[in-house]
Fold this sequence. Notes:
This protein has nine helices and seven strands, in the order H-H-H-H-E-E-H-H-H-E-E-E-E-H-E-H. Helix 1 (12-35) runs parallel beside helix 5 (143-165) and helix 2 (54-69) packs parallel to helix 4 (106-124). The longest helix has 24 residues, at 12-35. By secondary structure, it is α+β, with helices and mostly antiparallel strands. It folds into two domains: 12-170, Up-down Bundle (Four Helix Bundle (Hemerythrin (Met), subunit A)), CATH 1.20.120.450; 184-275, 2-Layer Sandwich (Nonspecific Lipid-transfer Protein, Chain A).
Amino acid sequence: MANEIRVNDGAGADGEMRRNVGAFEQTVRSTILLAETFTGPEWDLPTECPGWSVKDVVSHIVSVEAMLLGDDPASLHVLPDDLPHVRGEMGRMLELGVDARRPVPGPRVLGELRDVLERRLAALATIDPDQETMAPNGRMVPYSMFMVFRAFDCWVHEQDVRRATGRPGNLDAPGAECARTILRPGLPMVVAKRAGAAPGQSVAFRVTRPLPSTAYVEVGADGRGRLADEPGQVPTVTLSMDWETYVRLAAGRCGPADVTVEVTGDADLAGRVLAAMSVTP
């Protein structure tokens, strides 16, 4: 039982780094191949990321990787004050590279993505897997773990683009495993704090194809939610959904009314949990 993000398959730091970099590379290369098929108007299609088009999402990936290389010229861009989807300092920082590329044609942004991926892979080959760096959750983590966050972010954005352009695929990629690693620890907070489940109540999240898994969250006498490998009792609520639905809800891409979820048990608690499932910034 644990609520923290942990990745340890016995391969050691070097093995974890190779695996996580591989997941990152696979999803970015998949995004590149996908983008090579876009027609002009498809670059401007809206995605489920508020305020971001298909091109904006690709620009975001480019910008973050360029920032990590220390050479994104968009850092000097002056961001407009009237962007309603931008919230907080982190949101403004991430929007810089996106907004700076809005006048740039999609194929040029794609060219940037090809270039920055190769340069980033070369740089990653020189980084100590145990080197600590700040993760998006505000904690210092080894660089091998940081690459789980990068693979997760890029994979979720690949899926944003695939849904927007009607090109499903790569749902069970290595990046999807990284997404499961990042999203799962947020479930206790969703159940206990946001949904207000009472002590003794529990929720089972049953996820089906193409990446099946089950997570159990139990609320203790102290009111805190905890992940469990097996339920201590029949769950108060069981929520069954496919993997893409789970990701869309947990990544804040949609609300319960937009997807199909099978509910067994306390319908009121189920509604509160589903309405509060987003665990990403």
